[in-house]
Give the backbone structure.
Amino acid sequence: MARLAVRKLKYSGDLYEYESPTLNDGLNIIEGPNGSGKSTFAELIYFCLSGNPDMLHAEKSHKHKEIFSDHNNYVEILLQIENELYVISRFVRSNDITIRAQDGSMEILPVFRSKNNHRIFSDWLLERISIEAVELALGATSWKLNIRDLMRLQYHDQAPNPMQIYKEPESSGFIEDSKTMRKAIFEVLLGKSFHEYYGLLGQLRDAESQRSKAKGAVELYRNMLEEIHKKTQDANLISLKAELDERTDQLNRLEIHYNAIASVPTMPQQMFSKVEQLKAEMLEVQLTSTEKEREESAVLDEIEKLKRVQTDLMVECTQIKKMVYTHEKLSLFSADTCPYCLREVQRTRGKCVCGSDVDETQYERFFYSSAEYVDILKSKQKSVETVEKAIVSAETELKAIQNSIIQSETRANEIKDAITKRINESDRTVDIARAKEVANKIAQLRGEITKIEQQLALENKRQDLEDKLQAADTSQNTLMKRAQKLFADANLEMDARIKDFNEIYNALMKKCVKDCRRAYLDPDYMPVINDGEYREASAAVPRRLLYFFTLLRMSLLNQSVKFPRFLLVDTPETSGIDKDKLLKTLECLEDIIPEKDGNQYQMILLTGIGKYPEKYRQYVRQTLAEDSMLLIKREEKPL
Amino acid sequence: MKKETSEFKKRLMFLKGEDLYYLAYNSLVMLKEFECDTIETALLDYTKIAFLLEFVADNRLVDIVVAGDKSEGKHVTHNCRRLQAAYTQGLMRKHIIYRLMFALERKGLVSLQMNNNKGVVAVWMNNNKLPQGYFETELYESEVQNAKVIKKIHPRIRTMNLDTLLTRLYTDNGVQVWRV
């Protein structure tokens, strides 16, 4: 149940103003001669509903002269949506619409969608009339349904070519004017399922794009893996995991094995203390050795000194011998030679050479007799012997010391060997070569494990991506199925609708158009008369107007038809149609209004003076004067 | 006992370096080797004997001097000390040598004569007064050799000035001498 009704139209600017009478439900006629502003009326309403007619377009050549000479001018309508009233206003030259609700709340929304404007006036309005602004896929682009699109089947404008049925879109772009678009508009307005279907299509498109991305990722990844592994076969996760486990086991075993063979065994305590013992002994030996060497050196010194003494003594001996020889040979001096003048003295016993009394026994003479010399010599020789003995004993001592030094050295070497042997023994239990072998194997295994882990990671990732792809696939398929179902349903429903439409349309057309035997919609929802042979131009008007009427009737009859029950008809006559036919067509309005709750719609008809069935005179809301325009010039207010 | 003690004491007191006989035989060997047996070939200045005596008696000193002679200026400390000791001894012996010479002269073994030109006393040996075969013994072998060496390195030993001799022997070998 979607109702729109314009209750009032207002224009206000510095120079001009206009206020329409209140427009009721049902038919509202505004009559006026040509050029009196009827189209202006319609365009102003359209303008407020976010339309952009040329008349109100600043850059168009047909722009409204007066309006664009005016300033601070805006258009305002009092719009009823369902049971809510809103004041919708839009400044001329502006692309923003202000919405003022009954509760006083205000919203300003843009007319056009852009990067910054995600919510526009159309979205708001469509929301209110429960039409989803579905995103239509049109080739490579998409288009979100807009109120202006729907208005093409509500605003029966003064079209140069009524054969088009639809009001021309604002821009004759590829998108907006496509057949797909027109069909979509029709379907959304009439169908329920199509509406849903189109909504789903948007979702489907998203799912498709997701799937594409996922597929792309998977393929890229696969290619990358191939590059890395140079394998065309994908190793599967399970076999990889098995390989990894196996290698890890092997590694663990090898590590244990390695630890067993490669660890340096701590020397058992007794061996350790034995070595310590040896070391202590070694130290002692070395100390003793040093001591002995010092002794040796001392003894050597002594021996040398002794030898020198000996030599001296020996020399002395020979010298004494020489003295004895000289004494015997020359007899130069005797015991009784005067020490001073060295002359021989005749000395008396008991008296000194100087004449004093002396004790003969105690009288020591200056000179030595041969015997005394010999005595001295003997004693010297004895000394030599003594010294010789000393030397010998010293030499013996020296020998002893030297022996003990050699012994110490030998002992030291023994100890050194013993220590070395013990250390080597404990080393020998480590088999270096085998340990190295195991270590290498371990390193190799570690390398392999790392590689496998990497591969696993990559595989997991790949699996992940493939899962994602699968999910995307599934969701896309689901959506597709739903879409297909919806499409099917919608088509079925549409068929029913078309049938209804045809029935209504056919009846109306046969009533209004002479020689019309059959009127129906073709697959593009365009009306065909008499299988396309009908050529009379004057049928164009009813063909179009009755199409709109049929839509309205369907909306009135069926709650699920989304067509908002609002028609804005601007001067339906064209050249080629005579007044009677026009009136007859207009009279069909009565045929489409159901008897009870008849006025649950609004139609605004702008037409020439008296160009309507007489019985509709009661619906005339305003008559526009000849030679005047819609907008009233403001009086100059005196300052 | 007393006699033994005095004998013991005498033995202990024996100093060969001051024994007259020691000095006597060394001097006689020296004079013989220097060929001082006539007035013409007399050793000028008997005090030289005092200083040369140690060299004749000790071949080690001769070695030092010989080495010193050849090595030209290399002075070994140890050897210097020995030389120094020898010099000091020479100084102290001067007086004893003086008395010895007179004793020998009295015995007729040597002759002394004052040389007025040089102001020194010359000494020469009287070979005919010496007992037969005095020098024909192996005992004096080393002294003879030493004296020969000294003669060799100082050819003009007989006529040389004492100061010059001392300089040559000691100063040139690094020992300071002083005039007494």
